[in-house]
């Protein structure tokens, strides 16, 4: 009876002793060393366990840095083999806290910082029109759309053409041709509409044009290598795929009209997104808006660098002024015409709010990015904390939402 109910609700099997499916890395410090009690930290982990028990997240990895010290770095669940449609006999692999996961749209934060780095070096001016560097983009009246407009989701090109085959994203030249020929919804930056994947193609092209190298090489030179990242790449090299977390569409399908909203925002349903991202071709490809792979610890390392005014282990990755420009608010709380909810952005990051915002209660100065709804990556300078909650389940409207919100609430109490 339980198995029938689980399958009908499209959930993973959670009937495992939690201690047997939990992995903790040895880099956690005593939370008391940063003014947090062990009881507070344990309460956060219990919230992770409760989220796991919803069956919507086959694996979860969480890393939290407080005052630049790791106070939690753990995983729970299975990297693969325990999806909603898997059986008891399906080969399974336990998740580990140091396994890479696809960040989906949380990749955009990293790509945005790369563009700010490019501006810091004088290679571009973010207030310049895209067409200043790529003249072919000016078609259909897009000559005034700036790099800054696209970073802040006001560039007027929020989506690709409807009914475009998903495999088209692998054809960079064809995608670029479509973007150049597209008619914008605005050209003056007045309309906020989340750019789910289009901005990444623009920025990828910009780096290639002004530097003559790929955005992957640029990431490697200025963030990945200087910060000692093992993963942190767009796509994932074949030799690192043996323990990557698989993604699963979980919970019942979103009802209409939410299903149409998801399709419009992402260009794919959750089921299609999961299938696409588990394909080796996805991992072979560089998609700057969608397929950065990293561990939870690497994500918090990146955000800690921003909290440190661009410094990491004695290396100045970004100038302090660049961090300020990347994280300062641009515009007011506005209705996002893609996601149909009020949003607050900087030039590349999702911002919190007071009394409540994207990152919870009293998070006006917090910044970060979500990835396919359930991956939460952010930094909060007021709390001196960077957090990564990475999940492998793709679910929107489900019973797990209160548990995810509760987890973020407990994190913010640290």
From TrEMBL:
Task: Indicate whether Transferase appears among the record's keywords.
Answer: no
Classification of source organism: Bacteria, Pseudomonadati, Pseudomonadota, Gammaproteobacteria, Oceanospirillales
Q: Which domain of life does this protein belong to?
A: Bacteria
* PANTHER family on file: BETA-LACTAMASE-RELATED, BETA-LACTAMASE-RELATED DOMAIN-CONTAINING PROTEIN
Which keywords does this chain's UniProt record carry? Hydrolase
The protein's name in its UniProt record: EstA family serine hydrolase
Q: Where is the Beta-lactamase-related domain?
A: 49-394
Q: Which species does the entry assign this protein to?
A: Litoribacillus peritrichatus
Kindly name one Pfam family recorded for this protein.
Beta-lactamase
SUPFAM superfamilies to which the protein is assigned, alphabetical:
beta-lactamase/transpeptidase-like
One of the entry's Gene Ontology molecular-function terms is: hydrolase activity
């Amino acid at each position: 009876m339980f198995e029938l109910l689980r399958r009908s609700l499209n959930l993973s099997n959670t009937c495992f002793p939690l201690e047997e499916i939990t992995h903790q890395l040895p880099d956690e410090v005593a939370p008391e060393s940063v003014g947090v009690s062990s009881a507070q930290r344990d309460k956060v982990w219990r919230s992770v366990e409760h989220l796991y028990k919803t069956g919507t997240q086959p694996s979860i990895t969480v890393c939290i840095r407080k005052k630049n010290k790791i106070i939690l770095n753990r995983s729970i669940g299975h990297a693969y083999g325990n999806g909603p449609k898997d059986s008891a006999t399906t080969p399974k692999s336990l998740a580990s806290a140091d396994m890479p996961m696809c960040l989906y749209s949380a990749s955009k934060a990293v790509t945005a910082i790369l563009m700010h780095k490019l501006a810091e070096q004088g290679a571009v001016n973010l207030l310049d029109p895209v067409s200043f560097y790529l003249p072919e983009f000016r078609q259909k009246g897009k000559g005034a759309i700036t790099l800054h407009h696209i970073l802040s989701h006001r560039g007027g090109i929020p989506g690709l053409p409807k009914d475009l085959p998903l495999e088209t994203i692998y054809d960079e030249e064809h995608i670029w041709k479509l973007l150049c020929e597209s008619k914008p919804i605005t050209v003056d930056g007045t309309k906020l509409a989340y750019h789910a994947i289009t901005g990444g193609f623009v920025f990828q092209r910009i780096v290639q044009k002004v530097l003559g190298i790929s955005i992957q090489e640029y990431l490697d030179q200025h963030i990945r290598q200087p910060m000692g990242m093992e993963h942190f790449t767009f796509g994932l090299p074949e030799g690192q795929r043996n323990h990557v977390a698989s993604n699963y569409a979980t919970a019942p399908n979103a009802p209409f009209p939410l299903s149409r909203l998801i399709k419009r925002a992402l260009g794919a349903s959750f089921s299609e997104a999961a299938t696409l991202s588990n394909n080796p071709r996805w991992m072979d490809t560089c998609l700057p808006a969608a397929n950065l792979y990293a561990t939870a610890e690497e994500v918090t390392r990146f955000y800690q660098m921003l909290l440190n005014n661009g410094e990491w282990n004695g290396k100045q990755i970004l100038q302090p002024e660049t961090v300020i420009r990347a994280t300062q608010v641009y515009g007011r709380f506005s209705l996002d015409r893609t996601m149909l909810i009020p949003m607050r952005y900087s030039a590349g990051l999702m911002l919190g709010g007071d009394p409540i915002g994207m990152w919870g209660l009293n998070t006006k100065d917090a910044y970060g990015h979500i990835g396919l709804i359930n991956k939460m990556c952010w930094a909060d300078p007021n709390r001196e904390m960077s957090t990564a909650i990475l999940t492998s389940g793709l679910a929107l409207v489900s019973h797990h939402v209160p548990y995810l919100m509760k987890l973020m609430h407990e994190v913010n109490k640290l």
